[in-house]
Amino acid sequence: MANSLKGKIALVTGGTKGIGKAIADKLALEGAKVIITARTKPAVETEHYFIAAGDISRPEAGQIIADELLEEFGKVDILVNNAGANTSPGGGYSTLMDEDWNNEIQLNLMSAVRVNKALIPSMVAQKEGVIINISTGAALQPLWKMTMSYSASKAALNAYTKALASELGPQGIRVNAVSPGLVKTPLMEAFIADIAAKNRTSVEETFHAIKNEIGDLPLGRMAEPAEVAALVSFLVSPEAKYITGTNYRIDGGTLPVL
Ligand SMILES: NC(=O)c1ccc[n+]([C@@H]2O[C@H](COP(=O)([O-])OP(=O)(O)OC[C@H]3O[C@@H](n4cnc5c(N)ncnc54)[C@H](OP(=O)(O)O)[C@@H]3O)[C@@H](O)[C@H]2O)c1
């Protein structure tokens, strides 16, 4: 697939760390010009164009990103809505405040909704485009102790992905979700370290406890961000031109059902 994305303009939100950085690097390797966003500019300069849009969960962030991107590059071919996180405390329904629920919805659903809304018209104008919404296996397998509100917000992202694919397919735009399981990223490392500190256990014990909680991990390890990036790179490539309206799990076999 070398150079399969030559001439394409790609936006990767949250493209400075973890899965987003791996996706940005991979799309660039395939020939795309990549634009990234995050709250913090990377300390080390990269080949990617950085848009400083602040917290993407703010209502105005999507338009800020779209305005600068279109002014600089004139079009967008690939949108990867990757910025997101599980920001709520664990512990189940009684620990979750309205604010926690709102934060999850703003960050994991509305950020993608707004970025897409601001940039889809330019895709419609060129009758071509690909959108990937990064979801999570936890949307299909919510863990009440750890991911209740996060899972619900990403499940909403899945439903939105499907509806958007149906709406935009006739206009030449493909929309899919990608749902990783456990991926070795700064977010995941912080998540595990946080639980370990709260429970006064080691990181290794906590990882085993999470593995037990999710039930199974046949491949026995977390994914590398580059492994998720390889799937995204295929889905946005011309080789995947008949794939839309689908949610791809990449979870080492975690979920016990097909
Ligand atoms: N890691 C996993 O195991 C896993 C599993 C399933 C799904 N996912 C999903 O994959 C995506 C990426 O996760 P990751 O593990 O790669 O996360 P990460 O390592 O924390 O990286 C997140 C990226 O998004 C940016 N970001 C985070 N919050 C933001 C905000 N409020 N506004 C703007 N930018 C923000 C971060 O930069 P700044 O901090 O500088 O803003 C960073 O570039 C998320 O949607 C997550 O839900 C992750």
Task: Write up this protein.
It is a single chain. With 258 residues, the chain is α/β, with parallel strands linked by helices. It has one domain: 3-Layer(aba) Sandwich (Rossmann fold), CATH 3.40.50.720. The chain is built from seven helices and seven strands; from the N terminus they run βαββαβαβαβαααβ. The chain has helices at 18-29, 61-73, 98-126, 148-168, 186-199, 203-214, 225-236; strands at 9-13, 33-38, 49-52, 78-81, 129-134, 173-180, 247-250. It has a seven-stranded parallel β-sheet, sandwiched between helices. The mean pLDDT is 96. The protein binds NADP nicotinamide-adenine-dinucleotide phosphate (NAP). NADP nicotinamide-adenine-dinucleotide phosphate binds next to α1 and α5. NADP nicotinamide-adenine-dinucleotide phosphate is lined by residues 14, 16-20, 38-40, 55-57, 82-85, 107, 134, 136, 180, 182-183, 185-188.
